[in-house]
Amino acid sequence: MLEESVDLSLSTRTVGDRTVVEVGGEIDVYTAPKLREQLVELVNEGNHHLVVDMERVDFLDSTGLGVLVGGLKRVRAQEGSLRLVCNQERILKIFRITGLTKVFPIHESVEEAIAATD
Fold first, then answer.
1. Phi and psi of 117, rounded to 5°?
2. How far apart are CA 28 and CA 61, in angstroms?
3. How far apart (Å, rounded) are the C-alpha atoms in residues 75 and 46?
4. Which are the contacts of 53, defined by CB distance < 8 A and separation ≥ 6?
5. By three-state DSSP, how is residue 107 classified?
6. Cα(44)–Cα(105) distance, rounded to whole angstroms?
7. Cα–Cα distance between 101 and 93 in angstroms, integer?
8. Which residues form a coiled coil (predicted)?
9. H/E/C letters for each residue in 6-68?
10. Residues of 79-98 as b/e, b for ≥16 C-beta within 10 angstroms?
11. Helix (H, G, I), strand (E, B) or coil at 111
């Protein structure tokens, strides 16, 4: 019996006062809770300026979008920010269709997101 492997890679690093969360793989109903836990933990630890690097994300569904919106609400409650790095057309299209390009600052690169001021 073959098991479908659910791949989501997460790693974090700090650059100045920003915490960069590098996400790779698929953000869907199965993997989104892992991302949610990571974001909650970071905010609870006092990291209120997050950059979510989605350059290596292959797939994003509505559950993943919900986690990102939840993360945004969480950091905003702490007067923080959540910026996205995404340069893949198929993922950007999801943000455009849902109107979330008006909600999230979306950048071409991590460097651009870090340099941006709130």
1. -105, 150
2. 5
3. 10
4. 20, 21, 22, 23, 85, 110, 113
5. strand
6. 22
7. 9
8. none
9. CCEEEEEEEECCEEEEEEEEEECCCCHHHHHHHHHHHHHCCCCEEEEEEEEEEEECHHHHHHH
10. ebbbbbbbeeeebeebbeee
11. helix
Cα(47)–Cα(30) distance, rounded to whole angstroms? 25
Per-residue pLDDT of the chain (118 residues; tens, 9 = 90+): 444 455 899 999 999 999 999 999 999 999 999 999 999 999 999 999 999 999 999 999 999 999 999 999 999 999 999 999 999 999 999 999 999 999 999 999 999 999 997 5
CA 105 to chain centre: 11
Q: Please give the structure tokens belonging to residue 33.
A: 């809770």
Full-model pTM:
0.93
- 98/39 Cα distance (integer angstroms): 22
Domains of the chain: 20-115 (3.30.750.24)
Handedness of CA 69, 91, 63, 56 (dihedral sign): negative
